[in-house]
């Protein structure tokens, strides 16, 4: 990966939580991670191992004073709230286990919304949203509301929404966790193809080891340390 563009560089992430009176749980111990343009990296491990903590810190939802975090060439290590909010809107896309689509909006409206937040015109926002929905195979479902879509379709809308502002980094937390195996594969393929097309760096936390085997790299957290695994050994 040395000849590829580094999108996200993390150095020295430590994360400790207070779990009881005077007791602390150290879940991340000096974690380093680089993510590259156009690659999909799987993050696996048991519940409580620190996967969500890692995603939240990389996604600027939690802070760690000691860690250095650079996204798309910008050092966000000690960024203030305003800069962190701006980075989350323009540099980072999020996909969750639950799609969190707005029920009163159509698929097109849900995907166009982040563009409107950035100040794009309705015409510009909807054109960009339409192109992405077509890319994830929903060109015929633009005007359907979430309740009119299947679970897999709803999650593909969520992926399109996460990518509509052209982020450099995509973070996903169990994006296929509520889907059956066949639908999971379809949604993952749509995500992977879109990541490749847009040259986004993607970090995907998942318990689905079958999906993890189809990612470019797989990392796991063991005793607070990040370890890279062979995809064939997952």
From TrEMBL:
Pfam families (alphabetical): ABC_tran
Keywords noted in UniProt: ATP-binding, Cell inner membrane, Cell membrane, Lipoprotein, Membrane, Nucleotide-binding, Transport
Domain ABC transporter: start-end pairs: 10-234
BP terms from Gene Ontology: lipoprotein localization to outer membrane; protein localization to outer membrane
SMART domains given in the database record: AAA (SM00382)
Superkingdom in the source lineage: Bacteria
GO MF terms, alphabetically ordered: ATP binding; ATP hydrolysis activity; transmembrane transporter activity
InterPro entries found in the cross-reference section: AAA+_ATPase, ABC_transporter-like_ATP-bd, ABC_transporter-like_CS, ABC_transpr_LolD-like, MacB-like_ATP-bd, P-loop_NTPase
Family the entry assigns: Belongs to the ABC transporter superfamily. Macrolide exporter (TC 3.A.1.122) family.
Record's protein name: Lipoprotein-releasing system ATP-binding protein LolD
Organism: Asticcacaulis endophyticus
Gene: lolD
């Amino acid at each position: 990966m040395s000849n590829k563009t580094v999108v996200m560089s993390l150095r020295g992430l430590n994360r400790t939580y207070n779990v009881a009176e005077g007791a602390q749980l150290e879940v991340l111990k000096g974690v380093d991670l680089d993510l590259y343009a156009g690659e999909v990296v799987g993050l696996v491990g048991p519940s409580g191992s620190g996967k969500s903590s890692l995603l939240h810190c990389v996604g600027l939802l939690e802070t760690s004073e000691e860690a250095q975090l650079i996204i798309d060439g910008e050092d966000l290590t000690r960024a203030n709230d305003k800069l962190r909010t701006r980075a989350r809107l323009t540099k980072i896309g999020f996909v969750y286990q639950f799609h969190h689509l707005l029920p009163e909006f159509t698929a097109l409206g849900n995907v166009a919304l982040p563009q409107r937040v950035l100040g794009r015109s309705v015409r510009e926002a909807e054109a960009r949203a339409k192109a992405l929905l077509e890319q994830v195979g929903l060109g015929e479902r633009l005007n359907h509301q979430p309740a009119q879509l299947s679970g897999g379709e709803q999650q593909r809308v969520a992926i399109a929404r996460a990518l509509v502002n052209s982020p450099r980094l995509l973070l996903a937390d169990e994006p296929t966790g509520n889907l059956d195996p066949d639908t999971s594969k379809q949604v993952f393929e749509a995500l992977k193809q879109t990541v490749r097309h847009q040259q986004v760096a993607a970090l995907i936390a998942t318990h689905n080891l079958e999906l993890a085997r189809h990612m470019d790299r797989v990392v796991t957290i063991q005793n607070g340390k990040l370890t890279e695994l062979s995809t064939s050994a997952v």
